Amino acid sequence: MEMNAMNVKHVLTTCPYCGTGCNFYLQVVEDKLISVVPCKTDEISRGQLCIKGYNAHAFVQHPDRLKTPLAREHGELRQISWEDALDRLAKEIRRIKEKYGPDSIAFLASAKCTNEENYLFQKLARAVVHTNNVDHCARLCHASTVTGLLYSFGSGAMTNTIPEFGDADFILITGSNTLEAHPIIGSHMLRALDKGAKIVVVDPRDTPLSRLAHIRLSQKPGSDIAWINGMIKVIIDEGLVNEEFVRTRTSEFDKLKEVVMGYTLEMVESIAGVKGKDLSKAARLYAKADRAMVAYAMGVTQHSNGTDIVMALANLAMVTGHLGKESTGLNPLRGQCNVQGSCDSGGLPNLFPGYQRVDDEQVRAKFEQAWGVELPEKPGLTLTCAIKEAALGKLKAMIVFGENVMLSDPDLTHVEEALKELELLAVVDIFPTETTKLAHIVLPAACYAEKDGTFTNTDRAVRLLRKAVDPPGEAMPDWKIACELAKRLGAKGFDFSSPAEIMDEMAKVTPIYGGIDHGRIDRELIRWPCPTKEHKGTRILHAQKFTKGLGTFAPVHHSPPAESPSEEYPFILTTGRNLFQYHTGTMTRRSPKLEREAPEPYAEVNNGDAKRLGISEGDRIMVSSKRGSITLLARVTERIIPGSVFIPFHYAEAAANRLTNAALDPVSKIPELKVCAARIQKG
Amino acid sequence: MREEHGNVGPVMISKGEDPGDVRTDVPYQLITILSNLYPWMTDGKKIAVVTRKCDEKALAEFFKRGYFARDRVIQIGLACNREQIRQCRCSDPVPSVVDIGEPHGGLDTDALSEKLMAMSSEERLRFWEYQFRKCNKCFACTTNCPVCFCDECVLEERTFVPERGVPPGMSFHMIRAYHLSDKCIECGECERSCPAGIPLLTLRKLVARDFKEMYGFSPGDEKTVSPLLTTLEGESLDGDECDEC
Q1: Residue B120 is inside which H or E element, if any?
Q2: Is residue A554 one of the residues assigned to a domain?
Q3: Which chain B residues have a beta carbon less than 8 Å from that of A190?
Q4: Residue A564 falls within a domain, yes or no?
Q5: Of A184, A374, A395, B92, which residue is 20 to 30 A from A317 by alpha carbon distance?
Q6: Each residue of B114-155: pLDDT tens digit?
Q7: A44 and A102 inside one domain
Q8: ipTM for the complex?
């Protein structure tokens, strides 16, 4: 057989950006990534991608990639060998553990790493270092979904699947700029729109999707419970409650009724600024539709009462009975390629893999037996609390796998102070970041295109990554780094030769993944729960009964955001994404076609406010909060309600999170990234 | 195309290599895929590619402009099945040589084109405004297009299409429609890959219809030169001298 002279490969893999989980082919020539070809037979992406997907090859072989381990010596990061780096790291972890105890160390898992890697990170924290201090950036995005929906339904994930949006006849979208943040989920919504579905968008900003919606409600940031309770009241008042569903499938309806009855249309309008007539119309459309879906994202979750808002939405879905059937349900859209999976794999301080509680004795006994060690029972620190503890000098070490906390977390000045207090900050990443600048040890990781493993997308589909090219320089996949580190810390149970083997172990201890193995998902699209090898996976949750049995109505009241506008800071600042950049920009800002489309930080200011302040399109403005100031370009628009200002959080040179408030939701500890008080000045 | 991992995707193999489970019923745009690879194929070896009639026309546009060397590309003619012809509302589906598949006749009309032409121009404008408002600027229509082969894409400049803007506005689609008027071979890849479901193939067909009526020219023939490529050679100016200067 003649050898393939050119060595061309088309490698099917999963997109590294949002949580939609589109599959595509990486086009490889001689170990060079040259292009992305959509996969036409993929159920989720159907041969279609967004601009980020088409450019997902562009950053992989960028010259900035970290290629060797680095250690800080005399203030400078210098190249060292892997042996030296891992030895130093293990030695430091041992020293700190002995001196201050295991709970002085925290691990950050990663929504950009695979399930297999996250499984190892939490095993490393729990079984080797003996702490439950393991968390990741899900704390900043959907922590309140996990807590809220666990309470209401018993499972904190999308109840239905992405393709079902295309067959809905009604879709309510709130706090999600779906066409920009989850473009291919948006495309399924557009398919429904083309077929005649009614679309309602509730958002303080005008988004590409809200401009196509039949009803558009612009609520004041931080007023969500008011309009949701108002909508439920309309449904009750007009006799549109699904009585049978409420009677047979739920509990505590009377308590809910008592609370929402106070939310008259007048009251809702005064709190949320939403017109009663439009709200009633939306409520009727939703309650009367046959196939009605609700989708939401950060606009709901990133509040200091995020858990309550999520439960309010769950109440709305349960009142109408739009759950458990095709094209219905309550659907949190998760924002990172594997943020669903990193939660599933136990990258959470209170939960083992598969949402099994660390403080449940039986569960702990099961893991102790599986891993052959005694395990800590006290739930660990969340990411947000770990930062606070570090600032107080109580937390001494952080080992960060693939997160850029120095741009993604609220109140960066405080984060910076906290990280500088640490005796050990080790960061494993693919590029130098704002966080690696502060690290004592930096380890170079392989990216999605350079390793095998799985990502679990937002609709619970466990999707394979297939290695297309070798990592640059000495970079290694995170799972190997975790194994090497664990071995140096004297641990057993880290002798894995492939991610497939790690998944086999994870499946044994994680009932919702019980039937998952790489061989199966190489050929089939499987969504969890998938308890056995014979099980086909689950498209629709809560079909016959809720995961917890009966769904629980949570009577929740509106409460104002932690910080309200004042004379000094009269604007409400809200943050988010744009279509072309992704999170802290480490990947997209190194992708020329994406950077070209959105190269500069900007603030969206309402045109009326701008006129009053003498600000024109393109002016340099300073936006300040109690915590800091940034300077950036003004984009003057009618697409944001008066009194609000929007800043995307992608840009290190004008980091929105210098301004945001680290006020936490008491239940989920998610910070209020969506609301803080701010001031705008020209120049 | 090959069936693998429960999906069907493009594959390139060497002579004698086992192609695996071959499939020809999933419409990958192989000429676009080949054009990504071609600049890397410096060994001068020949490349065989499965070609539908539209692909054959796309190759003609490449050869005509000298982008592919004619003697390096071997065409394996694929006749589209009835369903594919229906999806593309294709009037010309049979390749010059059929190596794979049964030839089926083409369709004369595109129902949406007819519907649009029966509308008033205001109604038609409203229709397209709604369609273009769904555009999410993914550039799939250009990325996957076999005959989008400019070195610098006018849609990536800021003169007509400002950065950031989503949707990108009418000019984005109009520029593209006219830019391809003497190249588009109606493969339908833009429409299939559009996440917004914009009926881009119908837009193409309407422009192609006008172009044929006005200039008697249809793209995809290696021998005919685009009427947009004119020279002033041999044309008398009929004494219309310019008095301005």
Answers
A1: none
A2: no
A3: 134, 195-197
A4: no
A5: A184
A6: 999 999 999 999 999 999 999 999 999 999 999 998 878 888
A7: no
A8: 0.93
